[in-house]
TrEMBL record, chain A:
This is FAD-binding PCMH-type domain-containing protein. InterPro entries: CO_DH_flav_C, CO_DH_flav_C_dom_sf, Diverse_Substr_Oxidored, FAD-bd_PCMH, FAD-bd_PCMH-like_sf, FAD-bd_PCMH_sub1, FAD-bd_PCMH_sub2, Mopterin_DH_FAD-bd. It comes from the Bacteria. One of its GO terms (molecular function) is oxidoreductase activity.
Automatic annotation (TrEMBL), chain B:
Residues 2-78 form the 2Fe-2S ferredoxin-type domain. InterPro entries: 2Fe-2S-bd, 2Fe-2S-bd_dom_sf, 2Fe-2S_ferredoxin-like_sf, 2Fe-2S_ferredoxin-type, 2Fe2S_fd_BS, Beta-grasp_dom_sf, Diverse_Oxidoreductases. This is 4-hydroxybenzoyl-CoA reductase subunit gamma. One of its GO terms (molecular function) is oxidoreductase activity. SUPFAM superfamilies: 2Fe-2S ferredoxin-like, CO dehydrogenase ISP C-domain like. Keywords: 2Fe-2S, Iron, Iron-sulfur, Metal-binding, Oxidoreductase. Transmembrane segments: none annotated. CDD domains: fer2. The keyword Oxidoreductase applies. It holds the Pfam family Fer2.
Length: 270, 154
């Protein structure tokens, strides 16, 4: 296995040009994959010296691919800073793991993909062929699959300012678990958008009516259930893995969505 | 084999490692410091925790080559000869360990917490140690130990 740690982005794209290399950022997801033989690439390209760790306020935010969860925790990036504080695995994982890596790895049971869709993020991909930007809503193709080509590297996540109230809820069964279902909400006066993570192979975005009588109103909850279940079915059904069966995730997703909306609207729920 | 340069507990080391070697294995087998433990090799259990360039890290999730040039502190850096580090002393006094397997992660994350948050509340402590699995204590004595260590450091 060839190992390279290029000193800049040009070096990274050159090293990836053959299309056979594994990109290692923080390593918290892919290094265990290497260890357990689930991937066996001829080459590894390490991003840690390529200058991709910038976190800058520029209109919205530009989050470099190597910005760690710890760096996000210390900043004030809408939604992502809050999500970073709740990432499973302790400070040792948050000190190395990155939002960019989570997006690129595209594990359905992870926090970041659905949050990026909720934030209408754009993801910048670079290769020797050039640079392109992809909307988060189009980035995730399936479980562990994105539009990133093998010779491309994610360089930045671009975030615009959010013009609504943000809510977030993550449901997991034990402290050390990957999330079972997450829900990120952006609530505007006339429309409430919720993006579910973990529920299906890809993030599921739904538009809900604002709750006219609070988020515990049974009629509104029925509306949420029907919209969320339809969204999950259209995305291929509930995501199944060792943590939880798809039917379970589909069943709890509407409740998680409703509680996320309650969080966005500042309602106190049990 | 490629040469990797590390500064481990203040000592510069040059080690030859095969591609794909994990930092935890390099520390244990090439550097010879076995206080850092191999647990799950999935990044879950925290027994392999070391401090890399000032930040706690699970060394099973880092390739040794990626650490080339880094400063690494292991659990062996804590005690000064026979003199326990205050965090170790607090774990001793509160019965914060039994078998000791999780200790590298517990001690190093506790130390990192206290350095950044001198007066942590229980939520801070839980968040600091929640990347370490302990199968002996039930965690209560560990939380008490971190609380004591913080109090004694202030």
């Amino acid at each position: 296995m060839r190992f390279t740690r290029p000193p800049d982005l040009d070096g990274v794209t050159t090293a990836l040009a053959g299309g056979d290399a594994l990109v290692v950022g923080g390593g918290t997801m892919v290094v265990p994959e290497l260890t357990h033989g689930r991937v066996d690439p001829p080459a590894v390209v390490d991003l840690s010296h390529a200058g991709l760790d910038g976190l800058t306020r520029a209109g919205g935010w530009v989050v470099g691919a190597m910005v760690t969860y710890t760096a996000l925790e210390r900043a004030d990036v809408p939604l992502l800073s809050r999500v970073a504080r709740g990432i499973t695995g302790g400070p040792q994982i948050r000190n190395r793991g990155t939002a960019g890596g989570s997006a690129s790895y595209a594990n359905p049971s992870s926090d970041v993909p659905a949050c990026l869709v909720a934030l209408d993020a754009r993801l910048r991909l670079a290769s020797v062929r050039g640079v392109r930007e992809v909307a988060a809503a189009e980035f995730f193709l399936g479980a562990f699959r994105t539009v990133r080509e093998p010779d491309e590297v994610l360089t930045e996540i671009l975030l615009s300012d959010v013009d609504g109230k943000i809510g977030y809820l993550k449901f997991k069964l034990v402290e050390g678990s990957w999330p079972i279902v997450t829900a990120a909400t952006v609530a505007r006066p006339t429309a409430v958008r919720v993006v579910l993570g973990g529920a299906a192979a890809v993030p599921v975005a739904v538009e809900l009516d604002p709750p006219p009588a609070g988020t515990t109103d049974p009629a509104w909850r029925a509306h949420v259930a029907s919209v969320v279940e339809r969204g999950i079915d259209e995305a291929g059904g509930g995501w199944d893995d060792v943590l939880a069966p798809g039917g379970y995730r589909r069943r709890i997703a509407p409740v998680i969505a409703a509680r996320s909306v309650a969080d966005a609207l500042g309602e106190v729920t049990a | 084999m490629t040469t990797v340069r590390l500064t481990v507990n203040g000592v510069q080391r040059e080690i030859d490692v095969a591609p794909g070697t994990l930092l935890v294995h390099a520390i244990r087998e090439q550097v010879g410091l076995t206080g850092t433990h191999v647990g799950c090799l999935t990044g879950d259990c925290g027994a392999c925790t070391v401090v890399v360039d000032g930040a706690t890290t699970k060394s099973c999730s880092v390739l040794a080559h990626s650490a080339d040039g880094a400063t690494v502190e292991t659990v062996e850096s804590l005690a000064d000869g026979e003199e326990l580090h205050p965090v170790q002393r607090a774990f001793w006094d509160e019965f914060g360990f039994q078998c000791g397997f999780c200790l590298p992660g517990m001690l190093l994350t506790a130390k990192e917490l206290i350095e950044s948050t001198p007066d942590p509340d229980d939520a801070d402590i839980h968040r600091a140690i929640n990347g370490n699995l302990c199968r002996c204590t039930g965690y209560n004595t560990i939380v008490a130990a971190v609380r004591r260590a913080a109090k004694e450091a202030s």
